[in-house]
Amino acid sequence: MSKIKSNNKNMKTLDQVLELQEIMARLAVRDHLPTEPSTPFPRFAPEPSPEQKGMGWLRELPDCRDFSIHTNIEEVSANRRSRGVKRSIRDMANQMGILKDPQLPSSVNLAAWFPPVEDQGALGSCTANAGVGILEYFERKAFGTHLDASRLFLYKATRNLLNWTGDTGAYLRTTMEALTVFGVCPERYWPYRINNFDTEPLAFCYSFAQNYQSISYFRHDAQGVTPEALLQSIKTWLAAGVPAMFGFTCYSSIDQSNADGKIPYPVQGETIVGGHAVVAAGYDDTVTIVNRNNGYTTTGALLIRNSWGTGWGNKGYGWIPYEYVLRQLAVDWWSLLKAEWIDTGEFEI
Predict the structure, then answer these.
(1) Ranges of Pro residues compositional bias (predicted)?
(2) Is residue 48 part of a domain?
(3) Whole-prediction pTM
(4) pLDDT tens, 119-145?
């Protein structure tokens, strides 16, 4: 978990958030973790890690006000429409063929349109790394242009919206809001220097907001969506070329993924080590992942773009089992859309 360096005003609230996050994660898997009933459950310690990995995702429950594929343009606030939101997610989904119940391929891989994976270091900025990664992906795929966006700027702007200081981590919903309200400046104007994580960016950096105000963001796991329907939604949008970012609970077995990027489904006896946000960049129905603690094997996984540098997994990419979605250990699913991107015709099934 990201280390919290907070003032007294925020400390109590943040401690409560983190405590609730851990309780929710434990309850979510209490009845689903695979076990070996013949022996008492050992406490599995993390494997030695060569360096500290930053995390920072804070879990947040769905809200009835979250935009989803079912939100009509009439329901979009006048403020959002005045900032250039032209069509509802539903209208864009129709244009892309999302709603025609297509036959999905057994695998999808969008990694070719992402820039090289970056490293968040020990900072709890995974949500900003995920948000910037998706934005850069769309600019490359839709227009063939490379945008090196400032992760540190987005992390600070997100915490400004929350009135938080310190390396607190953040919510994905607020990260999306910061992206559409403040935008994000190029990396060269606000470089990723960890010691400056709480420094207020220059006013000039905020002038880039107008380039991103017409972006819409929507939630896949809105209220009432079943885990099975959620997985289908994620795969359908990926097949249309639309990635998503999400958060998941990390268990001690995650260090088994250092070499090949395959994150195993946790077993009894493991400990929770934090919450982390990444980007779903594809899927494969045939990928198998084995938890070396007891041999538990899953089939079918989502391709993830991590923010732990190219030395982790396969050049920074890895796999997380579908079970994480179906057992609600991977939640808080968000995607970005912009009418100008969709109109290029690069995104459709």
Answers:
(1) 37-49
(2) no
(3) 0.86
(4) 999 999 999 999 999 999 999 999 999
